[in-house]
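Box 3.1 — From sequence to structure: ribulose-phosphate 3-epimerase
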Amino acid sequence: MNYKQTGTMLMLCHFVPNLTIGAPVVQCLKKHVKGFLDCHCMVSEPQKWVKDFGKAGANQMTFHYETVENHEELCQLIRDNGMKVGMAIKPKTQIDDKIKKLCLNNLLDLILVMTVEPGFGGQKFMEDMMPKVKQLRQLCPNLNIQVDGGITCDNIHIVAQAGANVIVSGSGVYGHKDPKLAIQFMREEVKKCI
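Predicted structure (token representation):
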């Protein structure tokens, strides 16, 4: 599992009360950023956005499990539009049989365990989400497992030991006195546990 992601784009509206950026910005960034662009779509009806993000050059589209009825169909639509498939789960969502099936049938390239309520940065890390990460790691040892929300240099070891190999840290990096050092430290902590 060598997964290096240098850019994460957020598209927020309807499902959460905040709006950031959409496909036109992804298209502009793709011209200037060589990194992997994961579009984390916190939207109702994410299927409406797939073609736009695919055309814009997104490498991966991550949708929220709670916003979709036919997960398999959406996964296929995302792949058909040239992107990898990510799926996020909110803190209150349990790992049910549907989620297990999606993981075990290799329909996902990544599963994101939210460690805050999605929508706004700067929230406190929910350590009680780590059993989900452990459960997913045991279920699918080769699946990329991402965590997002409240991740800092002080708690990265907890996340890494639980089995997450992809980390999203906004405030934990940009609120650090040396963002470059924070990124390096977090990468090293994850590498120790992979």
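Summary of the box: The chain has eight helices and seven strands.
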